[in-house]
Amino acid sequence: MRDQSPDPALTAAPFPSELLIWLSPSFPVGSFAYSQGLEAAVDRDWVRDRETLQDWITALVRHGALKNDLILISLIMRAGSTADVRELIELSAVLQPSSERAQEATDQGRNFVAAFRAGWATRSPIEDAFDTLDVITFPTALAVAASAHALDPAATLETYAVTFCTNLLSAAIRLSVVGQFDGQRLMATLLPTIREVAHATMFATIDDLGSATYGADLASMFHETQTTRLFRS
Description:
single chain, mainly alpha, Urease accessory protein UreF
């Protein structure tokens, strides 16, 4: 008889309320101010409708920035020592493909740490990374916080991945690429892929890091000299 149990890569993880708070628009990180180069891609007509936007975000999920972020979160949550955590945080900072993307990642990381300390700090030794490093990226700051609160890794990865994509979707709506309803159709289509990649990165190693989204990397560089801009990246 065929096994009717759901595929773990396609089913929802349990979500601790901490994640819903830390990754909500009300948490003062500033994600709304960034588009990760999407604004430049729209300006050059690389992204112009729901189909091209879906292709753009899917590439980032499977082969680009999101995949790397998820691997680093997973590695930090499985790290054996605070020294390993610090090395992974430093690696995340140097993996950024452009100056604006580096500023985006580290500004949000710094903001996350400040907000986390205001109401959520614990006495976990892993939080020492917040004191011993001058630069920390958003995904690695989240990973440290999730580890300090002993949150479920699967939930952490999936929630971060969904937030990453919805932030890009919000930017696309403000850039008039898609409307609200098309945006929801896009997210419904993307969700199985998001879950699949989030599940796969639970078991990733440092050798799995790497990206092949050259268009997105170039767009983030082009944005640095774009004349009219809504976003900081």
